[in-house]
Amino acid sequence: MAGSEAxxxxxxxxxxxxxxxxxxxWLAVAFVVWNGVYDMRMHDAxxxxxxxxxxxxAGLGRGVDMRVVMHRGLVDAIAFSSAWACGxxxxxxxxxxxxxxx
Length: 102
Hints:
By secondary structure, the protein is mostly helical. The protein is built from 3 helices and no strands. The chain has one domain.
């Protein structure tokens, strides 16, 4: 029995390693979600600026300041991506908690 514990560790140690690996995986998923949502929101802000600039150049709209539009886009991107990443991480932590309470 002592040989099997030394080779594979105790059941609690294996479970702790598994939980740590799952936590790392959930953190990685939350980071990927944050990055993806941030990128999409910044893309939308850049596209919105380009549309407004094109309309202004065609004489169909007022010009917009790029710094203002992109700053609003940055704040929006950070807020939305952080909210989505926190939601994903919360689901992951709930899943881990359910696993621990089995």
